[in-house]
Model the fold of this input.
Amino acid sequence: MAKSVNGQALPDGIFSILDTDLYKLTMQCAILKYLPDVHVTYAFTNRTPHMRLNRAAFSWLREQIEKLANVALTSEELDYLKRTCTYFNETYLRFLTSFRLRPSEQVRASFTLLKDTGSQEDVGDLHLDVGGRWLDTILYEIPLLALTSEAYFKFCDRDWTYKHQEARAYDKGCKLLQHGCIFSEFGSRRRRDYHTQDLVVQGLKRAAADGQARGWKGKLSGTSNVHFAMKYGIPPVGTVAHEWFMGIASITNNYEHANETALRYWVGCFGEGVLGIALTDTFGTPTFLKAFKRAMPTPANSVADDKKTLIPGAASPPLPPMDSESSVGSSEERSYAQIFQGVRQDSGSPTEFIKIMRDFYDSEDIHEKKTIVFSDSLNIELCVEYMHAAEEAGFLPTFGVGTFLTNDFNHESNGQKSVPLNIVIKLSSANGHPAIKISDNIGKNTGDSGTVHKVKETLGYIEKQWANGDETSRWGASDNEATRAEVQER
Done:
């Protein structure tokens, strides 16, 4: 791997607070409004446990984590957010201006060697734990994951170069656009490194310009990474993550009403028609749809409505912004399914999900064309397949393509796949209660196993296991299974 390009040293680590996914900022905005004093913990999981860091990688990672304390919003970035992300209120923007991460207090990184020979090549298991106020710690997830991936490919798997990365991204973008796909770049968390994502966005932007000139039906709708959106003048995209639903369920300890509560407070923060793509699978899509069909309280009846969807101790009630469609005093009840523009599919079978959502909207007599955002381990062939299936069912399909774009490499020595890490950081507790995610595929269950089991029983969850849902080999198997890690493990 190269350390410089055209004589210029490549950037190390994270140097912009906006080098994160948009939905981390939108959730932080909502947390500031409603839940500023909730304390949480996060836990790291390596779903590819045979792919371990070595001692040199961990040392570098620990240094980069410490440097996160130096990252702050610049005046240019503030101006950008004011112009582009108009759903952020002034209170949040003032908060973000003075916001600082405090990794020495909030992050604990440790490393358990399999065998200590004194070498920098000695491998071990990485442990990352984050704790503090939710408001103060929510922005760690993306940088920590990106840095961990960068550490691995900087010190462990080094048999690769940046050669053709921009051209490869351009080619992928062209194929998606020619097929008529509307897609965004979603690759921050598992990117090979910053420079790789930079090259990818350049390639995609070049493909989009050529596609527009040639009249291709597809469209590059943006990137989830706010920094790169700002750098290259494309839209930042994203709405909400599982974390919002997980946190509210954990705080209230009310899993039967958690989805509805999360939807209500989301609309309360941003209003109707804003950031309106709902994530369905945190506790299983069937459970979510029971909430999705419920009527959202209006300003006229919000005081008298069901208290089961109110968060005890919330800093303010879930009333929408005064300038939103839902704040004008209408007494007409509309369901969340009517209010939200669409849904995001992130686990389980996409084709089954399309059928479930078609049946749901039809049963609710909703005939407006809704959007489905697909975001689970996509490539060109899958995007095209799901696009045709969704369009045939009357949906507008869009795609969030991540690791396939920002961590798609081959080993220089033999041409075999250089497999990405499959790593996640998930909320593990809120106010002392376990936080869990069930999803539509057993391979994506996270959190305390006892709580997972109890919640599944409470919700009547039917276990699902998707044939393509093996998280240990999502992006292929390594061509060199007898790694140093495995040799030391024997």
Summary: Residues 479-490 have pLDDT under 50 and may be disordered.
